[in-house]
Amino acid sequence: MPSPESINKIRDINFFAQNAAIGQFISVEIANSNRESFKTHLVGCKTGSYLILEIPSLLDAGNVKDLLVLDRKLIIRTICERTTGDCMGFYSTVQGILKVPYPVFFASYPEELETRELRAEKRLVTSIPCVMFKQENGDKMPGYITDLSNGGCRFDLVVQEEVVKVKVNSIYLRYVDPATNVEVTRLSEVCSQRKTGNVMSIGFSFTQEMQQTG
Length: 214
Known about the structure:
Layout: E1 8-10, H1 15-19, E2 25-30, E3 37-46, E4 50-54, H2 58-61, E5 73-79, E6 87-98, E7 104-108, E8 113-116, E9 124-133, E10 141-148, E11 152-158, E12 170-177, E13 182-196, E14 199-206, E15 211-212
Antiparallel strand pairs: 1-8, 2-3, 2-5, 3-4, 4-7, 5-6, 6-7, 6-8, 9-10, 9-12, 10-11, 11-14, 12-13, 13-14, 13-15
């Protein structure tokens, strides 16, 4: 866990827009006694005014979307996707709700936010061939691990133009561990993702110890 000294308070109105990327994961917590939360994606923003976020489906978030009413207080957390990869969080409120043509809601733009380091482990810049898959007998999607730490990695792969994001939360990664030169498989959770051109870059946290393949 980060020490209190690693938390930075920021009041720069441009900070969120400069560090967040359209399509990245956003964690939304309802600021009430039950503290219900859900994951969504950033659809857009107007600096100094509002954020636009997807309303999750009943399958993804249960009835939590019923709590999204005008002036509802929220706690929003995400990462500095464009820059450092640090975690940022801030208080917000629901400003508006649209159900057509797509279900989205408007949240107030942060006047003040906090950042903290997301990874305490040293990050190694790499270019390790890797495959990503949901099931052992399913399709394997090849790419490269571009940075690696004990707690997670960043995985880049080429995708088709119509692919906007990865729609699963957990997935397996298989690669040769550079420390042991042994092929391993790890269950990993999607923490962030962005698309630049035809390259999808996905940030993962490892949720399972390394399993030697074979």
